[in-house]
Amino acid sequence: MLKIKIIRFTVLLCCLFAITFNVFSAPRVPKILTDNGLIYCTNANGFSFNPQTADAGTSMNVVTEQIYNKLFEIRDNSSTLEPVLARSFSISDDGKKIIINLRHNVKFHDTDWFTPTRDFNAEDVVFSLNRVLGQNASLPELDTGEITYKNPQYKIFHEKAKKVRFPFFESIKLSEKIKSVKATKPDQVEITLYQPDASVLSHLASQYAVILSQEYALQLSADDNLVQLNTLPVGTGPYKIKNYIRNQYVRLEKNPDYWNKDAKINNIIIDLSTERTGRIVKFLNNECHISANLEVSQLGLLKNNNRYSLISTEGMNLSYLAFNLQKPLIQDVDFRRAISQSIDRKRITKTIYHNTAYVANNIIPKISWASVVNTPDYAYDYNPEAAKKYLANKEITLNIWVFNEEQVYNPAPIKMAELIKSDLEKVGVKVNVTNVTRTFLISQIQHKKEDYDLILTGWLAGNLDPDSFMRPILSCGSQTEITNLSNWCYAPFELAMNQALITTNLRSRARYYNIAQEIVLSKVPIIPLANVKRLLVVNNRVEGLKMSPFGNVNFSMLSLKQESR
After folding, report:
1. Is the per-residue pLDDT at 224 higher than 90?
2. Pfam families recorded for this chain (predicted)?
3. Residue 81 is part of which domain span?
4. Of 66, 338, 365, 560, whose Cβ has the fewest other Cβ atoms within 10 Å?
């Protein structure tokens, strides 16, 4: 009997070890895929093959930067536009027309699911921009010469398109900026604005503003399969999709028809299979050449190791706590200031980010061209005694909502919420913390049932222009959207932001944005918490790596040194 029990215990123990191994280990990328290849390890959160439809303010996946091109890039973290699919551009004297001349001899990807019959041209730009604007000029009407009638596939496309959301473009109200987009020549596009707007070109350089193939969309809409535009991508970039295993990996292969310099690495594997703690294990096991979104508390494991480098850059992001100004109690600015003074932001930054972030005393991050070195702290200095004096005997209970997902700007949101709860309870405020999903929050906002007093959130910009940083999260136009979770609308802020758009002088624009920022700092609709550095751990075999403030890497610029033996 004892022998049987021992055997059963041994079998059970082996099963437990097997389960544990399956839970904590991740599948290795097949060796056949890594020949002349580089492995980039990251997470699968918010993964999308089409940045047009990606959730604004969430981390853009590095994949899309390799597949697509945009009209412009921003040069070296400045305000200077660098043409990509555009060759040049000009702006009319009244500031309302932008003429963009396009690059020639650019080919779309030839894949297993699409073979292009023509090169990139103005129709692709018109289609791509009109798609996110909701315009009805994206696909043509049939004209037989004798009879002109509506093309059924045209109707199908627009019925499908109405159901697709473009969060970034909706958050910046691009459809209220651009009146029309049309092709004036095969290699020229004319954009007409409702009024002069200095931010439009920078929006067209954002990581969301990729150019799609109109020919591919026509083919898909004819088959009533337009959803494939977002799942089997076709672009003009240096790499194209070879295959994708959901939540495991994406395989990219070099585009032999790329219009720019040839990529030096044939295969790129984007490994999506691990969480933060698992990624550093895979990296140390030489299963990743580059690893992103690591558990920052484990970075000490890389110290004194000359095989790896830690690459960092200032990020265009902000972690913050938003007040819900729909609540009567929250509408008192003195109350908001007292809550701000209760929160030890230095402790939060040290505990959550382990020296990979700094306390945010501004709204505009340091890396933006509109950032200023010193601004008044107003209500943000930690002063629990002053807060306790104001809040004494008020018997207040606050509901804090927090997303149950990790983001670049907040790797441990639930833990951060608990730190904030602890700080507020020290000054006599009771706090209930509720974890919510993004889907739940969207539903609550749509039905006007968002019952939070404060919400822990953040923002990731797609470019360095302060307009796309502050307008989505604080403007009247986004007041009922998921981006403006404070539900704040304040006329002096709107005036300063709008004044910044009607001048092309960079110093004047920066001055107006800083006026807008000072208004936010004085009225406290949000409490800025931290600006987070973008980090990559890189094997020293990788050469040519340069990371953007948005965490993106251009793989076509990379090469791999031979492994020493």
Report:
1. no
2. SBP_bac_5
3. 69-230
4. 560
